[in-house]
Automatic annotation (TrEMBL):
It comes from the Bacteria. This is Diamine N-acetyltransferase. One of its GO terms (molecular function) is diamine N-acetyltransferase activity. Signal peptide: none annotated. The keyword Acyltransferase applies. The gene is speG.
Length: 67
């Protein structure tokens, strides 16, 4: 809790996505998050992730960015 709401996660995500997008031939990026966490949903959507349904275990929401 001490480091929440300081923008650290947002900066980390920007840096991570930048690095991931350098991968040759990459067509999409997938993430999973708890579907009962609206903060996570909003956070990932702000980066362009779109929900596509539940993961294979039917426990977490799967979201992707098409590149």
């Amino acid at each position: 809790m001490k480091f929440q709401n300081q923008g650290i996660g947002r900066v980390a995500m920007v840096l991570a996505l930048h690095e991931i997008k350098q991968t040759a031939g990459l067509r999409e990026i997938e993430i999973c998050y708890n579907p009962s966490n609206p903060v996570a949903e909003s956070f990932y959507q702000s980066f362009g992730f779109h929900e596509v349904g539940m993961d294979d275990d039917d426990e977490d929401m799967l979201a992707i960015i098409h590149l």
